[in-house]
Amino acid sequence: MACCLGSALLLLLLLLGSASSAGQNHCLDAAEACTADARCQWLRTEYVTQCLARSASGDCDLARCHRALRRFFSRGPPALTHALLFCQCTGTECAERRRQTFVPACAFVGSNPSPPSCLEILEACELSPVCRPRLLAFQASCAPAPDVCLRGQGPRCLRAYAGLMGTAVTPNYVDNASARVAPWCDCGVSGNRREECESFQGLFTRNRCLDGAMQAFDSGWPSILQEQLDSHQDPGHSLLQISSADQSLEGSSLLAILSVLALKPLL
Predict the structure, then answer these.
(1) How far apart are alpha carbons 8 and 258 in whole angstroms?
(2) What is the pLDDT of residue 214?
(3) For a surface tag, which of 15, 101, 182, 258 has the fewest beta carbons within 10 Å of its beta carbon?
(4) 3-state secondary structure of 158
């Protein structure tokens, strides 16, 4: 019972925004903008539901969680999905919300209570037809060339980073005290391949082009969500108006639909 209650509270945390905090917390602004958009909210409810679900053994279904997360980023409005992913924070409350947005207990950590070797997840990615091209795109889009980040490189870098969400190397914010990101792995047991391991890890932890792109995203924040917010001022707009969404969304789980129906009065 306690487990179910905890999952429900996390679901509420992820799906609800606080109008009184809007404008003070960019991650809440992003959550509210997603809530106001039928497609974004439907896809977000789907990945939260899939990532919170537990099998009979008590483990999360990582494959379903990752698949729903990839759908969120591939089919959701980019302005909104990126706002949720790259919202900037000045306090720990905002940063913790940002860290928890994509259900890291499943999507990030999975069934590994301790971080595996980065070489292990790199090898898993290289064998995956989903992950490998996305990692190559991230490396190409976010790497300095040769010692500087190119003009206009930032948006491509952020798109490529978002493309890694829901893959074997899904990154996340590592704590609520910084904007540092990394996959769930370390290089403590990499042996004579430590340099290779740290080079891969450094794509996230020592990447000034990625850091700069994330900071630049925040500088354009006032205009990022305004068009989305303005488009939903019509009082007839409803969270359940999904006729414009892909027909494939009709196959979403009944639990996701019930979650939206139950939470709609609170949104």
Answers:
(1) 13
(2) 92
(3) 258
(4) helix
Q: What residues contact 170, with CB distance under 8 A and at least 6 apart? A: 66, 69, 107, 108, 164, 183, 184
What is the percentage of the chain residues whose pLDDT exceeds 90? 55
Separation of alpha carbons 140 and 155, rounded Å: 13
C-alpha closest to that of 201 among 115, 265, 97, 141: 115
CATH number among 3.40.50.720, 1.10.220.110, 1.20.1740.10, 1.10.150.120, domain 37-266:
1.10.220.110
Is residue 39 pLDDT above 60, yes or no? Answer: yes
**Per-residue pLDDT for 116 more than 80?**
yes
- DSSP annotation of 47 reads H
DSSP three-state, residue 2: helix
- What's the token pair of residue 240? 């359940």
CA–CA separation, 66 and 220 (whole Å): 29
Is residue 197 within 8 Å of 117, Cβ to Cβ?
Answer: yes
User: Is 181 in contact with 102 (CB distance < 8 Å)?
Assistant: no
- pTM for the whole thing? 0.79
